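Q: I'm writing a short explainer about Fucose isomerase for a general audience and would like to include a description of its predicted shape. Could you first generate the structure from this sequence?
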Amino acid sequence: MENIVLGFAPTRRSIFSAPDAVKYAELTRSKLKELGVCFTDINDIAEDGLLHDDADRIKIAAKFKEKKIDGLFFPHGNFGTEYEVARLAKELNVPVLLWGPRDESPDENGIRLRDSQCGLFATGKVLRRFQVPFTYLTNCRLEDPEFERGIRNFIAVCNVVKAYRNIRILQIGPRPYDFWSTMCNEGELLERFNIQLAPIPIPELTLEVRKAKEEKAEVLKVMEYCKENFEVAVKDSELESIAALKVAMRKLANQYGCNAVAIQCWNALQGELGIMPCAANSLLNEEGLPVVCETDIHGAVTAIMCEAAGMDKARTFFADWTVRHPDNENGELLQHCGPWPISCAACKPKIGYPLAFRHPGAVEAEAKQGDMTLCRFDGDNGEYSLLLGNAKGIPGPYTKGTYVWVEVKNLKKLEAKIVEGPYIHHCVGIHENVVPVLYEACKYIGVKPDLYDDNEEEVKAYIRGE
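A: Of course. Here's the predicted structure. Afterward I'll give you a sentence or two in plain language.
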């Protein structure tokens, strides 16, 4: 969580107990430190360490901008000053978390000290007037498990938004001619979402491959890694080309400042290098640099979002929805020629040959089963959405490439969603349940969440702390 910094701005209103608001702000600070949350405080600006004064709010905004915060957290120690919260949130344009500690019973004289919950109602309304999206964590105690869950979930949401707003994809070659399904609107992606592409031709890649082979050192390290971690069923000269391709793609991604790669994996590359790029893709995916096939830009966007939702702890895999399970009515095969990271594999993977091509360089392994999230960012005709839901791995027949059989709640419904669009046969998977994180992140990035499990109320309940 150290990569995400929250702007911590506890708030109060003057007609309620200021000492109690200060008390709860301190308790919340201590709890965040206990949880390992990185935050920038305002107690060096506001005399009481609370947001309620407009002059302080201006200085707080300047400090938060300087510190490049990734999200705003507004604990309502008492009722809170809703317009100062809204003004600060509007100016900072980052995800916003609202929460307040449970109120005590009135004292023996019928006096209430804080009215935290009532203030949250007011702040929510004013944020809507300011057209500021926000996340609400239920009015609970600091010791309640839903507080920690809500904080961690919100930090992951901030991670997705941060990653999404800084996407730059290395596009290696145009899409394969036959793959009309992977076309994208580059101008619209930039105008709508600041998603940037760095297109390069195949010869620029092959030039870097030759350089990597000449320099040898990095290529030899990659070859050694492959021999230790894969069953290698290709010639040494072919493994050298695979390793050099991996080194070249990493160098080009760094050179162009990219956080994902979309490569035209066939068929120009085979004429130039004589290999499939799948194993090289697998190696980079394992390092946390998502690489997707068939120049699928929307697939690369999906992978970045999914990795960020998992707080970069678990690697994602890029797959085709392919065929129905022979026995399970809600079962489906997820498969691709071999770009999946080795940490997804249930066995030692093999570098060999793909299903539909004659050139070496694919990875073969069945993936781990267990619970997963599957998702797909896509759009057409100016509308973008994120298909997402859960699945679990199940037994199924052997097939070539990297693969896993999965079961979903209602495959017929999901199948219709993919066919009717705006989605295609590609998706991204991760062995984590990141559905609530991705769902909530959508409200901050202007993308419509599309839950194929039809469980929106369950997801919302999880986010708010039920």
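A: For your explainer, you could say: The first strand starts at residue 5 and ends at 8.
Q: Perfect, that's easy to follow.
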